[in-house]
Amino acid sequence: MKYKRIFGIVLDSVGTGAAPDAAKFGDVGSDTLGHVGEYYAGKLAIPNLQKLGIANLRDQPIQGVAPVDAPLGYYGKMQEVSAGKDSMDGHWEMMGLPVDHALSLFPNGFPQDLLDKITEFSGRKCIVNTPYSGTDVIHDYGEEQMQSGDLIVYTSGDSVFQIAAHEDVIPLAELYKICEYTRGLVNEPPYVIGRVIARPYVGPDKDHFTRTANRRDFTLEPTGKTDLDRLSEANIDVIGIGKINDIFSGHGIKTGYHNESNMDGMDHVMTVMDQDFTGFAFTNLVDFDAMYGHRRNPKGFGQALMDFDQRLGEVMANMKDDDLLMLTADHGNDPGFKGTDHTREFVPLLAYSPSFTQTGQSLGTRSPFSDFGATVLDNFGLQSGAGSSFLAELK
Hints:
Distance between the termini: 7 Å
Order of helices and strands: EHHEHHEHEEHEEEEEHEHEHEHHEEEH
Helix content: 25-40%
CATH superfamily of the largest domain: Alkaline Phosphatase, subunit A
Shape: globular
Number of domains: 2
Structural class: alpha/beta
Radius of gyration: 20 Å
Number of strands: 16
Organism: Paucilactobacillus hokkaidonensis JCM 18461
Number of helices: 12
Pathway: Carbohydrate degradation; 2-deoxy-D-ribose 1-phosphate degradation; D-glyceraldehyde 3-phosphate and acetaldehyde from 2-deoxy-alpha-D-ribose 1-phosphate: step 1/2
Mean pLDDT: 97
Domain Metalloenzyme: 4-383
Main location: cytoplasm
Low-confidence stretches: none
CATH topology of the largest domain: Alkaline Phosphatase, subunit A
Strand order of the largest sheet: 12-11-13-1-14-15-2-16
Binding site for Mn(2+) 1: 12, 330-331
């Protein structure tokens, strides 16, 4: 069957167990869903994900979330082939553009010549310049930044250049301008960085600082054509919800919605469901990652999953027979694991349509992530640059 509308939702960082190459990333033993389930000790209530087969796709159980005898959807998992485990790598690979070469990492901070250029451009000094938790760095240096007007510069285990500043000290427009300039410095060797991220925060003091939804990602321009471009060139509607527009630098996207939160993102999904269009609505829900994974907060992560599950029920109830829903993730970010970085994991793959007549079938382990985008393209009669469609398996 061919579908008029496909809704792809990426549960950012909701991994489902260490990938075969996890040792390369120091992530052996990571399992985002498994460890969240352990934390909740049998009280993790995600009935809609459960009905779709979230527990059926796993080799190890999720405590309190049993496999079901007859899943409503098709289930499986995907294994990444890209060189990194960042959101950019995962999303690009999903859309037919695996990242073959590792991006620049800075475990000891950024080179001084790069910081000097930013200072010359902005008139502001760069402080910190080391890998740091985003919430910890504003706690430890936010008051200094408010007094000096400097830029808090930090990174992580991923290829990211993050700049934090208090919104009352450095206006958003200025912060974005500095980040845009920085983006232009790190697009080619010797420094090729996946994302420059503006990290504004507010609050009166270190015990009350909070990061705001005015975050903005300045992502490396796609290095080739993506499946979003292929859809757009064929006059198929492409709608980006959440940070999708940032990740693809707007390429191939007809309409974009900025999310304030997961729930705001789901509001946008429901809004789009009420629209008459033919095409692909691609959503990223980042709170799992930004709010709970990086902060190693399994309680908040689990609650976000349960909140999403309730909204998932609304989506399923409002789907038309010629709608297809596909759920996945871009990487792991295990809140029960060491460190504060993303984790190299398998990601879930769930597919559902009210028109399915033969459900409860496994899609197996798909690799690369590009099988996701190839399926979308196949539905609209297009060929992917990478990956194999599983559209014919959905019946």
